[in-house]
Amino acid sequence: MRRGILFLLCAMLFAGLIPGGNPAHARALDLQAHMCVGGAESASEALDLASDRLDCGDGRFAERDRFVRTHAELPADFEQGEDELLWQTDPANFERMILRFTYAGGEQRTIEFGPETAGRNWFAMGRFSVRVPTTGQPLREVDMVVEQPKTYSVARAARLVESGAAQQEHFTRSLVYALMCGFLILPIVYDLLLARFLPFRFMLWHAVMTAFLLGSVVSNSGLVYQLFPDLPLGVRSHLNTTTLALALVAAVGFLLDILEKGTVPTRLARAAIGLTGLMILAKVLTFVEIESLRIVSHELFLYSLVPLTAALIAIIAVALARKSRAAGFLAIAFSGLIITGFLRILIGSGLYRPSFLLDDFLLAAMVVLVLGSAAAVGDRFTVLRVERDRARVSAIKLGRMAMSDPLTGLGNRRAFNSLRHIEDGQAMLVADIDHFKAINDTNGHVMGDAVLCHMSSLMRDSFGDVPDSTIYRLGGEEFAVVFRCDDEEKLRQAGEKLRDSIDRKMASNSYGIPPATISVGGALGGGRSVTEVFQEADQALYSAKQAGRNRCAVKCYGSSPIVVDFRPRGVGT
Fold first, then answer.
1. H-only helix segments in 198-295
2. pLDDT tens track for 344-379
């Protein structure tokens, strides 16, 4: 049910955020369809190229010369409105750019600028703007010469748009991107807060992945120029792909950590890690300033995403086949990003030109990724927390079993030995069942066990209202009680109360259990070691037995044990 709701929400996001293609009218005109492309070794040579020497075919955006020239003749039905026109394109890294606008009647205007213009005139949606000069004549042709473009998107993304429409679009998209950034911050905070309670590694991976996606949105949208107005275009260009590469590294770590153990084959996991390393190596090549690698390095980076994307798909598919609970969320979460990756590769290779804005698709994909992966994190967190709680309860039960006597349920000798001191204000009683061997020999061991269990129950009743009291079965018929007591007289009374209660209730029971008595020895703690206090209590117990059993004796510091006998005259042993 939850997966169905999540899938429906994702579908609604894609439907709402991906518009149709831009029509060729005066408010916005994409120039790519009208472009022809050529190349030269200087700007003047590029501008002087005759129209018939330019390539207008499908592979025209593969020009690798130092200066790339584009020429676009505007369609006959293009009509400029009242607002001035802006020329816009993707600010992919370049050294210098020249724009030449040709108007009806042959008049031309030329504008030359460097990469710093992209920062000053940034436009939400990964573009920058240049104002088209106004001459009173209709615009007919647009020529561009770009020096050392790092990607072909700087030419393919060119368009003309009216300033009024551009301002409205800039405001709307800036608001959407800002909201998107705020939205991406929430799961980061969510992960870090949860990690304080249960520090699972996949939460940190998810937080890192979301943080780099946030950086990708800030950089690709142009919002980075709001934070750093003087940021060089080259730095921003590298940020676009570096944040994406690091987000993919974190995504691989996130996938391998969040999926249940055994759902991802070791070879497939190693392959994904290896392909991630290859992708990082390809990204590092884009930083190398070598002319022969100027275009190739960026294409290699794009192509390195193909096998990595395939590995991610394989990991999710295999995990789904192995009934992974988390894989269902992840299949939805990564679907948009995987599709976007393939589209970027196809567009970057010139093999596909979508009828929608890829930035909008990427935005929707990131929303889906964050929603789906956050749902996977929440679900996996819940499952692991339940498993950990169960393990903790099981450990507690095993610990109690290890420290409990299986017959009586009292603390065992191990629990008693775990004590280090009997604090000042505490005391110890040691009790021994009188003639217990005779009970076993006469009635059998089963009945002897019944005597032990009933005796234990009576001891619990006797100390039920005594604060901080703990009863131990030390072995055989020997018991010990540690309880709060700071006075010798109270200790005598507690020992005698226990002895008398056992004497009376064992003699009058109606369970068929043979009557039995106990001898009791006691000593005050005084903050001394358990061994020392136990020795004194045991000496007192020995004195009680020597005095005839069914008696209580208390040993005071440095003196002989004092035997207490409050029994009525005539009561035997």
1. 201-221, 224-227, 233-258, 266-285
2. 667 656 666 665 566 667 777 877 887 788 888 888
**Phi, psi values for residue 37, rounded to 5°:** -130, 145
Q: Domain of 545: which CATH number?
A: 3.30.70.270
Our separate counts of H helices and E strands in the chain read 17, 18
Structure tokens at 114: 């460097």
Give the whole-angstrom CA distance, residue 74 versus residue 93. Answer: 26
Range of the domain at 103: 25-165
**CA-CA distance, 102 to 140, in Å (whole number)?**
6
Residues 136 and 272 in one domain: no
Would you give the end-to-end CA distance of the chain in angstroms? 74
Statement to judge: residues 305 and 426 lie in one domain: no
Which residue ranges in the chain fall short of pLDDT 50?
1-26, 568-573
The pTM for the full model equals: 0.63
- Between strands 518-524 and 552-554, the pairing is parallel
- Domain identity same for 254 and 385: yes
Which of 412, 411, 431, 428 lies closest to 501 in space, CA to CA?
431
- Give how far Cα 341 sits from Cα of 148, 172, 345, Å: 25, 25, 6
Q: Which long-range contacts (CB under 8 A, 24 or more apart) does 535-538 make?
A: 537/428, 537/429, 537/430, 537/480, 538/430
Two tokens, residue 262: 């055994």
Burial of 391 (0-12, 13-18, 19+ CB in 10 A): exposed
Cβ-count burial 317-339 (b if 16+ within 10 Å, e if not): ebbeeeebebbbbbbbbbbbbbb
Q: Give the burial class of 461: count Cβ atoms within 10 A of its Cβ; 0-12 exposed, 13-18 middle, 19 or more buried.
A: exposed
Question: Which has the closest alpha carbon to 428: 380, 372, 488, 377?
Answer: 488
Place of tokens 């969040």: 258
> Strand 470-475's sheet: what is its strand order?
470-475, 478-484, 426-433, 518-524, 552-554, 562-564
CA distance 113 to 173: 26
Q: Tell me, yes or no, whether 191 lies in a domain.
A: no
496 in a structural domain: yes
Q: What are phi and psi of 378, to 5 degrees?
A: -60, -45
Number of structural domains in the chain: 3
Q: Are residues 129 and 36 in the same domain?
A: yes
